[in-house]
Amino acid sequence: MAVLGGVLMGCALWFVIRCVLMGLYTVDQNERAVKTVFGRAQRIEGGKTTLDDAIAAKLRPEERERYAYPLVRVIPPGGPYFRMPWEKIYKVSIATSTVNMAKDVEDPAANYAGTLLEAVTKDQLNTGLTGQIRFRVSEANLYAYLFGIKQPIVHVMAYFVSVLRQKIASFEAKPLVPVVVEGSLATGTPVADIIRISINDLRKNLRDLNDYMDQECVATSARYGVVFDASLITGIDPPPDVESALAAINTAHNQVSSDISLAQASADQKIVQSKRAVEIETLKAQAEVEPLRMMATQLADLKAQGPNVLEAYIRNVKLALYSKAQSIYLGKSAQASGEVRS
């Protein structure tokens, strides 16, 4: 009887330790958790998938069926929570992480020990890229991160590197847009069409390259459950054997661009000066014509007052002129009309 009581006491103690004490857990502030019951993650009511969520908006039509993951119930920070022995808790940190873009999770020695990522440019130059990427786990798609892919970080890094190398291999600078300067057309320099060194284009357009990578990686949350916060490509280094030649080309390009800019500035200045000269001469002509227009208007107003008003006005004006003149020469018509001579 005593032995049976000891067995029962031991079973009760084991149950308390196993189910009560070991069944309690907490979730940290920067963590989220998912519970599985007999190996199956708890879904939200309604059986919705990621296709019903906003994160799937950036998926291409052929990808929607492939990346349709169920939406699971996310356990928020806090606790203590309780779980049964047949339940398992999967915790994930959702804090933003920063990693070198050249890091290979499966092979730490690759890419010069994760410090330099190589890529081939459009003009067949092997260049090195340095930079970082910031990412975090998507709280809206924890199923894909925990159960959809065995190593999601490996998939995400491989996807990022493949997209980056494809863009490096086909990158072209934006064409120069003609600029209108005060009515004159100042076209862009044609040197950019002659000297096509893709490394120069990449260095000058790092911001556009980073923006392109952000746009291309916006669907990773729906694919792998990882959100890219930003990609920061900070350096593009050409091969050592072409560094000196590239520096010489850059120097010549900068000199030609400077000369073209000076010529355009001089041409624009001359155009502005010519416009100002035309405006001045136009104002002078208007100043000479305006008194004549005013006089014509006055004469028209006088004529409108009556048939003899204009003749009287002209006669009075002539009399005023006669009083100021020293000599007056009259034609035959004036003599015949009997005008006064003095």
Into which percentage range does the β-strand content fall? 15-25%
Q: What is the element string, with H for helices and E for strands?
A: HEEEEEEHEEHHEEHHHHEHHH
> Main beta sheet: strand number and arrangement?
4 strands, antiparallel
Which runs of at least 5 residues are low in confidence (pLDDT < 50)? 177-195
Distance between the termini: 166 Å
How would you state the average pLDDT, rounded? 77
Estimate the global geometry from the Cα principal axes.
Answer: elongated
Helix content: 40-55%
Helix tally equals 11
User: Pairing-aware structural class of the strands and helices?
Assistant: alpha+beta
Number of strands: 11
Describe the protein's architecture and organization:
The protein is α+β, with helices and mostly antiparallel strands and 342 residues long. It has helices at residues 2-21, 110-114, 142-148, 152-170, 191-194, 198-204, 206-216, 220-224, 240-305, 309-324, 332-337; strands spanning 24-27, 31-37, 40-41, 78-82, 87-93, 97-100, 117-120, 126-137, 179-181, 184-186, 226-237. A hairpin with a 5-residue loop joins strand 7 (117-120) and strand 8. The chain is elongated.
